[in-house]
Amino acid sequence: MHEPRVPHLRGGDPDIARLVEDEARRQFEKVRLIASENYVSPAVLEATGSVLTNKYSEGYAGRRYYEGQQNVDPLEELAIDRAKTLFGVEHANVQPYSGSPANLAVYMAFLRPGDTVMGLSLPMGGHLTHGWSVSATGAWFRPVRYEVRADTGRVDMDQVRDLALKERPKLIWCGGTAVPRTIDFPAFAEIAREAGAVLAADVAHIAGLIAGGAHPSPAGHADVITTTTHKTLRGPRGAMIMSTAEHAKAIDKAVFPGLQGGPHNHTTAAIAVALREAAQPDFGAYARRIVANAKALAAALVERGYDLVSGGTDNHLILIDLTNKGVAGKPAAKALDRAGIELNHNAVPFDPRKPFDPSGLRLGTAAITTRGLTEERMPQIAAWLDEVVQAVAKGDEDAVAERVAAEIRELLAGYPMPGWAPAG
Questions:
Q1: CA-to-CA distance for 268 and 334, rounded, in angstroms?
Q2: Which residues on neighbouring strands pair with residue 173, listed in sequence order?
Q3: Which UniProt keywords apply (predicted)?
Q4: Active site residue 39
Q5: Which residues partner with 175 through β-bridges?
Q6: Residues in contact with 341: Cβ distance below 8 Å, sequence separation at least 6, in sequence order
Q7: Residue 128 assigned as binding residue
Q8: Taking the chain, what is the end-to-end CA distance rounded to the nearest angstrom?
Q9: Rounded-to-5 percentages of helix, strand, coil across the chain
Q10: Does the annotation mark 325 as catalytic?
Q11: How many CA atoms lie within 13 A of 19 on its CB side?
């Protein structure tokens, strides 16, 4: 049963209602290890589905292009104040539609087409919008890329400094989409100052860990901070840009009118709800449990002979190189999905395979931690994953996948899912 309930959807569009219900059941019955996913609270779901979706609010509080903003203005101001307090920043913009537009706004605020930008290479764990060639950021700007060390799997800060001083980028990104280790924000800040660059920290994956005190914060080090509001922060699908007061005007102008029209007020409301939830004491305990689960799962995988990029994790994310198992990432991910373990195939540093058929798997522990799973369950998850991967290597995974999926359904029946429960 969906919570909040959807009787009007069932009555008015049963086809969509059925798909919503099927998706909810799928989320309930699977060990969800996709590092960018989570479960939001019923309160976040209610805000997302509220009548605020009816209202158009181009502009900013007190400076709108439409009338009728008596409730939207204080709503957006509340979300901003909560973001500033939670992350300890001087300015916050809560209007970006998602993480990529938020990052594009940073380019618009500080760069002109053709300027140099530096970011972590995509195959090394960086993000498309940090200057990768198939992204607009790689086509419109001059990208230079730093890497991780082959021997450690960690960012080579000496290379970052040498590259920054040689290329003199106007913008340096730190953070990424597959970075399992703590980001050294002070070191990046020192390099950016020396090179005369703006430092932008993309904390989309670790924002919830930062809010909960389980990862160091870039506040006070980075000029600009971008983040999505889902993932570890456990909010709706949206984004924020935070900055020092010095850059507030440039950031706001880049978001609107630079890139976007009216903000999605229902999403803004849900962001505000999630930020309030993240400010509660129990969220800090949740963030620490995410990391504890990730470390326990990583240790269990290492015990079973899995090669982890950088040897382990400091956050929620684990990156597995399956080369020594004789299996590619894509067939392993598909078999694991059939077995009730949801994750994604992913490139690993210095991957000899193509991006659409890479060597690795990426997984994270935010969603299973929301469900209430603890460190004691991580060896069993590692055992299930190992059974399926071994079966794929032998070309005989169907029976194993079916059995493991049934065992996972039995386990997860004892762990409630926010937003849905089986009909009693």
A1: 35
A2: 200
A3: Amino-acid biosynthesis, Cytoplasm, One-carbon metabolism, Pyridoxal phosphate, Transferase
A4: no
A5: 202
A6: 30, 31, 33, 381, 384, 385, 388, 404, 408
A7: yes
A8: 9
A9: 50, 15, 35
A10: no
A11: 3
Count of C-beta atoms within a 10 Å radius of residue 395? 8
| 3-class SS string, 44-97 | HHHHHCCHHHHCCCCEECCEECCCCCCCHHHHHHHHHHHHHHHHCCCEEECCCC
User: What is the C-alpha radius of gyration for the chain, rounded to an integer number of angstroms?
Assistant: 22
Out of 226, 228, 313, 365, the active site residue is 228
Which run of H or of E encompasses 145?
A: strand 142-146
The β-bridge relationship of strands 171-175 and 116-120 is: parallel
Q: Whole-model pTM above 0.85? A: yes
Per-residue pLDDT, averaged over 73-100, amounts to 98
**How far, in Å, CA of 30 to CA of 336, rounded?**
10
| Ligand-binding site membership of 199 (annotated) | no
Nearest to 92 by CA among 60, 70, 120: 60
Q: How far apart are CA 106 and CA 129, in angstroms?
A: 10
Q: Is 122 annotated as a binding residue?
A: yes
Q: How does DSSP classify residue 155? A: B
Partners of 119 in the β-ladder: 145
Q: Determine phi and psi for 30, rounding to 5 degrees.
A: -115, 150
Segments in 111-242 forming alpha helices (H): 136-140, 157-167, 185-195, 207-211
Q: Which of 32, 145, 170, 231 is catalytic?
A: 231
Query: What proportion of the chain, given as a percentage, has pLDDT over 90?
Result: 97
Q: Cβ(30)–Cβ(381) under 8 Å?
A: no
Residue among 3, 46, 58, 156 flagged as catalytic:
58
The answer to whether residue 231 is catalytic is yes
pLDDT in tens, 133-165: 999 999 999 999 999 999 999 998 999 999 999
**Active-site residue identified among 237, 276, 338, 409:** 237
Q: Which two tokens stand for residue 219?
A: 């506040």
Count how many Cα atoms sit within 13 Å of the Cα of residue 95 in the half-sphere of its side chain: 26
Q: How far is CA 345 from the centre of its chain?
A: 16
User: Would you say residue 204 has pLDDT above 80?
Assistant: yes
Question: How many other C-beta atoms lie within 10 A of the C-beta of residue 349?
Answer: 21
DSSP 173: E
Other CB atoms within 10 A of residue 66 CB: 12
Q: Are 169 and 197 in contact (CB under 8 A)?
A: yes
Could you give the domains of the chain?
Answer: 47-278 (3.40.640.10), 282-412 (3.90.1150.10)
Residue 3's pLDDT band, with cuts at 50, 70 and 90, is confident
